[in-house]
Amino acid sequence: MKTFLLPLLIGACLLVMPEWAWAQPSNSSNPQVLCFGAEEPYCVDCPAASPNGSAGSTYAWEVISGPFAGTIAINPAFPSQNHILIDWATSPADNYVLQVIETNAQGCAGDPMLLNIQITPEVTPTFAAVGPFCTGSPIAALPTTSSNGITGSWAPAINNTATTTYTFTPDAGQCATTATLTITIDSEITPTFAAVGPFCTGSPIAALPTTSSNGITGSWAPAINNTATTTYTFTPDAGQCATTTTLVITISTLPEVTVNSETICFGADASITATPTVPGTYDYTWTVPAGASDPGNVATFTATVAGNYTVTISTTGTPPCSSLPASGTLTVNPEITTTGISHN
To answer: Which of 227, 216, 168, 210 shows the shortest CA–CA distance to 191?
Structure first.
């Protein structure tokens, strides 16, 4: 802030004036131009050698023109009424006239001294919106010059992990107010998918969906494999605040089984047994020769009819995986025909 010096002219009373010179600062003009809300010091009759005014004089200060809404107070740095501080506060942008009248010790008033003052409105710096961004995405430094030409700096530092409001503080010497800019940081969404499978080895598997249940688009890798349990990774398309996710498709191996072959004499019984490679609980489906009874869902049974006995076993879980057919053969030796005993 600069202190403005006002010349004191003598009124009707005869005053013996001290020798002093007055001047406005070299960077000021008439009128004085202030920013909205400024607080400024003023003085009159205040040369550097004797800054406290004329002995015995009083000074009456007043803003006589303009919608003044501030306060006038003695400057606490000086003990005399010839130094004041004006807080222009909420005085709107307009033209004002500051007046001071000195009255000397003899009660004689001097001519009013006037200073034209112009208050200009504070400019609000404007900036284009920035973001939103995904958590962790790089964010470029914010511009240090606003769209309407105000220079300044930002605080706090850029944070790409949480929504943050940044404050722009204009550089000194500009009639500008602070401004704020909020950068929204969106949390990454995890794409969700319904479970797929399990499947039996070799079963057809449809292509996985390229849009998640919660609307994220993307692609899967690796290619579908229907021979082994595989973990597939979904990678979202660019431009979505979404993370990768995985989906495991379980492939159940097919059971394996063998059936024994037997040879019996005519009239004897044979035990036909299906033996799974991996012990467990299975469903058994038999195909038997003509004339033989269907044994039902059993692993072993008694047979007397010659021919091929074929079985398919299925697991009892989900899904039920079935084996390839396996067969065993029952051979029945023919009945022996013995002729009668003869006497030689």
So the answer is: 216
Contact 172, 35 (CB under 8 A): no
Task: Report the C-alpha gap between 64 and 58 in whole angstroms.
Answer: 18
Q: Predicted confidence band at 46 (pLDDT cuts at 50, 70, 90)?
A: confident
Neighbour-count burial for 163-196, b at 16+ CB within 10 Å, e otherwise: ebebebebeeeebbbebebebebeeebebebeeb
Confidence of residue 344 (pLDDT cuts 50, 70, 90): low
How many angstroms separate the CA atoms of 204 and 296, rounded? 30
pTM, to two decimals = 0.59
> How far, in whole angstroms, is CA 172 from its chain's centroid?
34
Q: Cβ-count burial of 323 within 10 angstroms (0-12 exposed, 13-18 middle, 19+ buried)?
A: buried
Alpha-carbon separation of residue 136 from 133, 157, 158, 303 (angstroms): 8, 14, 11, 73
Question: Each residue of 105-141: pLDDT tens digit?
Answer: 999 999 999 999 999 988 999 999 999 999 999 999 9
Q: CB neighbours (10 Å) of residue 83?
A: 22
Contact 154, 71 (CB under 8 A): no
Beta-carbon contacts of 49 under 8 Å, excluding residues fewer than 6 positions away, are 20
Task: Tokens 């390839």: give the residue.
Answer: 324
| φ, ψ at 330 (rounded to 5°) | -105, 120
Q: What is d(CA 7, CA 114) in angstroms, rounded to the nearest whole number? A: 9
Q: What angle do CA 86, 90, 91 make, to 5 degrees?
A: 70
pLDDT at 14 (0 to 100): 30
Instruction: Give tens-digit pLDDT for 293-333.
Output: 999 999 999 999 999 999 999 999 889 999 999 999 999 99
**Phi (first) and psi of residue 13, to 5 degrees:** -75, 150
